[in-house]
Amino acid sequence: QVRVEESGGGLVQAGGSLKLTCKASGTIARLGAVEWYRQRPGEQRESVARISRTGKTTYADNEEGRFAISRDNAENTAWLEMFSLKPEDTGVYYCRATIFAPIADDYWGQGTQVTVSS
Known about the structure:
The chain has 118 residues and is mostly beta strands. The chain has no helices and eleven strands. The chain is globular and about 45 Å long.
């Protein structure tokens, strides 16, 4: 059984930093692309960063420079580091991972809450 779990959220003051972790576990043949999403209160989920298996990264237009996505294939883990956080970064952050187990499918975690106070 494959599982994806986020962690690392919390309460931080504006200007602070957080590092979120996305960990895939279970019978995994290979971890493919990993993408982080943010869902602000009352809004739809939106992509903020993506990393391919080979390490190619893409970011939402407004987040490049403040967010950094990375991964460790051996650990089936990806991270999202967030810097200079703003109150509008508040929301639930979700990880979506493409996992080959052995057939490729997308798996979502339960989300981790990030709250940025002004």
